[in-house]
Amino acid sequence: MRFKHRMWLLPAMMAVILSSGITINSRIGAQASADLLRVQDVQYPAVEALRALDQAFTDVQDTLRQGVTEGDPASIEASREHAESARAALARLAGLDPGTRTLARGLGEHFERYYTAATQATAVLMGTRAGDPAAAVGRMQDALQALAGSLETGRAGAVTEFRDLLSGSAAAVSRTTMVSLVTALVMLLALVAGSWYLIDRVLAALGGEPEDAVEVVRRIADGDFTTDVGARPGDDSSVVRRMNWHLSREPRRSAARRGRAAIAQLWVAAATPQMAAWARARREPLKSPIAALQPLAMGEAIPGGLRLALALLRGSISANSCGALH
Asked: What is the pTM of this model?
């Protein structure tokens, strides 16, 4: 894999980790929002409706009890207003959702049974209705206990669910915070690990710090072949290691070129009189030994004694030129 592709892997990993954290937080937030909406639209109105029903039920009891105590037959009629308030609370409870509708139906049956038994018992006790007072009161007490038990169960369930939804929403906020912290920690660890891996790969390929490698290349480009390039132990393939290998060979190549140049100069010095004679034979002045290379390059016939000297001279010039270039 190329280095630039490895570089792109790092932000890609960050994007995957960040998107995973956002997805998890979105799901947690969606659930918390649904719980809060249920609290707003169902549970809180249900608790309020049950509270209103309990208050109306208590008002009915107090009104009928006061009517029996005072012997006032109008108390039965006065209790009807409180009974309507109870029925209105039950209607609100039934309109919230299917669960509260079932609860409202059961509470409504118990309330109607109690209200009928209570008004009949009140009328019997006040003498406005014939019947056995003990039996009427017994029926009223049974209906009262059934209604009170059903109302207490419904109210306790509604309050418990209300609190569970609120605590669940608070827990969702905590989970969202925890997911954000974990996501940030994972991103930090991935960033550190990815950066460490990439930097290690770069240093392994270069064989050292990039600034040191650039400085070495700059000195070599300026013709300084005496630069000491230190390679790490066990490094046999990096750029610095290869430069070190070439620089270690450069002194031997330079010595070989200088040796060939010295030999060529000796041969040329020995052959200079012959070259001058050959030039006079051609009726051309010998300006320099280098000028004698041109007829050799043109393929002209040269006496055998001079050919070796000229060939050595040409090789020496080429070697020195290459050394200057390198």
From this structure: 0.57
